[in-house]
Design brief:
It is a single chain. The protein has 128 residues and is α/β, with parallel strands linked by helices. The chain has one domain: Response regulator (Rossmann fold), CATH 3.40.50.2300. 48% of the residues lie in helices and 19% in strands. It has five helices and five strands; from the N terminus they run βαβαβαβαβα. The protein has helices at 12-24, 35-45, 61-69, 88-96, 109-127; strands at residues 4-8, 28-32, 49-53, 79-83, 101-104. Strands 2-1-3-4-5 form a five-stranded parallel sheet, with helices on both faces. α1 (12-24) links the parallel β1 (4-8) and β2.
Length: 128
């Protein structure tokens, strides 16, 4: 069965690029453009992984991450922050909000694919 990935970014070009790349790699991809939609899709769509931008309309990525990680039904979904906020303070804040990984923009799609594979593998090992 295909792994499902939720990609959340308010930049349509970034969202479409990531979505296209992951679909070519045979993942089922769902997407959201703001924090509210991300929470709904995370809860309803049962993704195996979430790629989450930090700077989002409605609810920022930090809050989305915290809300999912505090809920026992969703806390085991790996969340990788995707962000242009490249400072170490931002990275620490991402991990403190519960993120499992952190990828800085601009990023290389092959490097992103490696992070996706690593997170999915780690998650599968934890859940077995």
């Amino acid at each position: 069965m295909k792994k499902r990935i939720l990609v959340v970014d308010d930049e349509p070009s970034i969202l479409e690029t990531i979505k296209f790349h992951l679909e070519i790699s045979d993942y089922d991809v769902i997407s959201a453009v703001d924090g509210m939609e991300a929470l709904k899709l995370a809860r309803d769509g049962k993704p195996d992984l979430i790629l989450l931008d930090l700077m989002l309309p409605k609810i920022d990525g930090y809050k989305v991450c915290k809300m999912l990680k505090m809920d026992r039904r969703y806390k085991n979904i790996p969340i990788v922050m995707l962000t242009a906020k490249a400072g170490s303070v931002d990275e620490v804040a991402g991990y403190q909000s519960g993120a499992d990984g952190y990828v800085k923009k601009p990023f290389d799609l092959e490097a992103l694919s490696s992070v996706v594979e690593e997170m999915l593998e780690k998650s599968e090992n934890l859940n077995n």
